[in-house]
Design goal:
The structure is a homodimer.
Chain A (H helix, E strand, L loop, with lengths): L15 H14 L8 E2 L1 H8 L3 H14 L2 E4 L3 E4 L4 H25 L2 H20 L2 H18 L3 H21 L6 H15 L3 H24 L3
Antiparallel strand pairs in A: 1-3, 2-3
Helix pairs in contact in A: 1-3, 2-3, 4-6, 4-7, 4-8, 4-9, 5-6, 5-8, 6-7, 8-9
The first copy, chain A, binds a DNA duplex through helix 3.
Chain lengths: ~220, ~220
DNA sequence: TACTGTATAATTGTATACAATCGTACATTA
DNA sequence: TAATGTACGATTGTATACAATTATACAGTA
């Protein structure tokens, strides 16, 4: 069991519940539903062509994931994210990403390091071209690689959970990746990992998230 | 919504599902079930006098909490905690407890600070008397106060989640609180918070968890 | 008008019936 | 004997029926 994830991934793509769960999560994160919008079991079930049972089970999981809030005997509501929540998330992430970077210096595989280098290289290209869509995608992936390279399923799961919120916040604020500056920071983290410099990697990854938060605030979260 | 918790607590004590969830969690944490023991829906349901439906919903939540692992079409199994998991948990906690301590210097209320002082004082008493049961209880409570005093529902929830594992590990290793040394560290953290010294509070709380881990290892996790 | 009680419809909570899946035991065959 | 196929039982997955709860509208009353 030592290789097993404590917080089990929901990967049961082939059960109805799994499909409902994935679909709802996607729809909530993509902003299809308004904040505080009520989700009715029958309506969701009909939309996806399933009964209430798998929908209810998916609801229970989405509740623990923090995406909806269930009021007993009343209903399920899409959760809002307050500005304080966003700040807390970024501050917590800053610590954990630092830890992930440190551990990556100890556990990263050659293949992962290669993908990281490629990621940084590609991001530089797309940054010059102004391809924001691809940049955001690469940014997400960069962090995912680092989570995986940390060699800790526990930490990986925690950070992926938080990343969900990051994606939501980005959609909400319409703020795309930060472009060149963010890339440079990625490159620095990557090099620190490559050189197996744990202290530096942790420091840079930590600061990287703080910078991302600063940028997010400037980009208008405070206004919107 | 700004005061609402993103990761919703499961406080629905009055629904059958809520009761099943709480009961199973308690039983798993208390070690009633062996690692990898299979939990059957009907059996659990009969034991608690409910049908499979609330049991299944509770299972889905316990899965996300990391206490059980559900294999599609097969069954639910109590998750094991590997030595690496324990190490990861403590390392992650060390960062987050540090953050909680720092934030507590900013947000702690007078009542919370008072309870913290009382906690330290009482612990000193029970430590001298060798009351290990009460010491463990006070230790748990000390950390909980700090989580609450952090003023961050996000962080509080994260840390309480991890604390579940800590309690499990303690049961498993039969290692009680560390006694006087741990108390002194608590006192140090408390004073740093009282003096509103964020840097010191974070540093001490961080080290406190690292020390607790060292102690745990010595206490025999490596052997058991 | 403002307040209270009640009937009703909508929705969630739970139980149960049925379908699909998996593991095991046992028979069959080479 | 060893390997393979198959029938059966046990268990989970899903749908549906029924119970409990909630919100709302509306009538009655001061």
């Amino acid at each position: 069991m030592s290789e097993k994830d404590l917080k089990q991934e929901v990967t049961d793509k082939y059960s109805l519940r799994g499909r409902v769960f994935s679909r709802l999560r996607e729809d909530i994160l993509s902003g299809k539903y308004e904040e505080n919008e009520e989700l009715r079991e029958v309506a969701i079930g009909e939309e996806l062509g399933v009964s209430r049972t798998p929908v209810r089970e998916a609801f229970r999981q989405l509740e623990l994931e923090g995406l909806i809030r269930i009021v007993p005997n009343k209903g399920a509501y899409v959760t809002g994210i307050s500005e304080k929540d966003v700040k807390d998330i970024y501050m917590i992430r800053s610590r954990l990403e630092g830890l992930a970077a440190r551990w990556a210096t100890e556990h990263i595989t050659d293949a992962q390091l290669e993908e990281m280098e490629e990621n940084v290289y590609l991001a530089k290209f797309h940054s010059e071209k102004g391809h924001y869509e691809q940049l955001a995608e690469l940014d997400n992936r960069f962090h995912e690689i680092m989570y995986e390279a940390s060699g800790s399923k526990m930490l990986e799961h925690q950070l992926k959970d938080f990343h969900q919120y990051v994606i939501r916040v980005r959609k909400k604020t319409l703020s795309s990746a930060r472009g060149p500056k963010s890339n440079l920071e990625h490159e620095g983290i990557m090099l620190a990992i490559k050189n197996r410099d744990g202290d530096l990697a942790e420091k840079l990854a930590h600061e990287h998230i703080l910078n991302a938060y600063e940028n997010l605030i400037k980009a208008g979260l405070a206004n919107g």
